[in-house]
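Morning run. Coffee first, then this:
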Amino acid sequence: MADVTVVGAGLAGSEAAWQLAKRGLTVDLFEMKPDKMTPAHHSADFAELVCSNSFRSDRLENAVGLLKEELRRVGSLILHCADACRVEAGGCLAVDRHGFSSMVTEAIRGEKNIRVIEKEATEVPAAPVIVATGPLTSDAMTEGIRTLLGVEEYLHFYDAAAPLVTAESVDMDHAWLASRYDRGSADYVNCAMSQEEYTAFVRELAAAEQAEVHGFEDDRVFEGCMPVEVMARRGFDTLRYGPLKPKGLKDPKTGRDPYAVVQLRRDNAAGSVYNLVGFQTHLRFPEQRRVFSMIPALHNAEFVRYGVMHRNTFLDSPRLLDRWYAWRQDPLVAFAGQMTGVEGYVESTASGYLAAVAMAAKLKGKPLPDFPRETAIGALAAYISDESVQQFQPMNINFGIMPPLDHRVKGKAAKNLAISQRALDRIAHMEICTEG
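And here it is:
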């Protein structure tokens, strides 16, 4: 019998299993793929990226950039693999999604302390256990969690993934390569739209036929993954101040910012597939082809994957979990990943890391890891366990949930960098056991 059971081999579960194994604990890792797949999953590999291939900003003046750097410094498997599978994306960390998942899978399967069990867990295994079944937890496991915790109902929101197109099908007569404000290398394909083209596009997008999604309402959509058609319905200029923002993207043909710009980001290392940045959608597939082909550079686009929408399920964590992602009624039952209310790939990884390191400390009789709120890892854990939060909603890491500086720093970027440096200083002085 293994020392710890981990359920789910997504980002959080893979990170958790790895951290436990590296501390000398044996792990049974349950993963229902490939025997059972969800509508959002397409690969049997672990840590599959079902939405964007971007881990977002890699700059320290951005909170998620800080979170990534903290995870690098504490020995995260996910960040190691992401860095190794990086594809150019300006100031962002984007990865070859298949290469990344394959590398994580190889590492997990090659770790002697981890036994992979390709089987659906239909109830929460006996403690010690970390449940990281993700936002698409199966009905059986959902009921198992509900039974264990006594939760009457889960909170939920809807999440959406953007379409993918082949690079060779993009008409570069209507596009150019650049990053916003020319930061870094020219990693994005920028598809310009005139005012007339944008007007027609928004009109058709707002009226396009949606796929049936049971219980869907606009006010239930998580703001960070707002479907593009919902944005179009919220106002004519909403997209121009969102994913179609032209600022800092001068068209080399005119020397001016166009009226609107659709950006495409490389989705694999070969550069043969690109995703439509910010175009999460739940339109019917024929409608996606019809409306998105109105973008001049995409008039003959070959879609290799259409956008999809699915329900994400998460716990009312402030009522249930402590700052180590453990159930308040049993410290040897922990949860990790998006089901805890952290939102995003890196945030899910951080939760898996902390849940595992804390679990290892409990089992070995060592002090619990004390990540202060001045660190991004600690701030995220404090947010999901804050009992004063009454209407809990998923949260990306942001500087707003971290304590302010005790001195004034002029300029937002400089202030954020100072917050990041304070966090990294705290990490440097922490005693964190990385091996068993």
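The longest strand covers residues 155-161. Good start to the day.
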